[in-house]
Amino acid sequence: MALRRKRVKLQNLRKFNNQIVLLNRLLMRYNIEGFVDLLSKPLRLVYLNFIAGMARGFGIAIGLSLISALFLSILARLASLNLPLISNFIARIVRLVNDELTPPRY
């Protein structure tokens, strides 16, 4: 009876040890230590988020500029082809933009 209890305890200890090893591997894989370190230093967290926001904003500005330039160059080439439908559409857009840019007359 005592030997059986010891075996059961030993098996339970092995299962527990395996669970601890698995938990340790998961924590190491997901870098939980880095998160805890970051949360313990709130100024560093604010600084890193600020830098990340600046990088995102810069990337959005550059990307929007490139895509807008590409779109405008395609429109300019289409306008130079003098296609009736497309030219009328682009001319209408240009007129609308010019109307919005001119100051109102009283």
Structure summarized in a few sentences:
The protein has 106 residues and is mostly helical. The protein has helices spanning 2-29, 32-40, 42-80, 84-101.
General form: elongated
- SSE order, one letter for each helix or strand: HHHH
Structural class given helices, strands, pairing? mainly alpha
SS field, number of helical segments: 4
Uncertain segments are none
Helix content estimate: over 70%
Helices and strands in order:
Elements (H helix, E strand, L loop, with lengths): L1 H28 L2 H9 L1 H39 L3 H18 L5
Keywords:
106 residues, mainly alpha, 4 helices
Would you mind describing this structure in some detail?
The protein is an all-alpha fold. It has a domain at 1-30. It has 4 helices and no strands. The N and C termini lie far apart (106 Å).
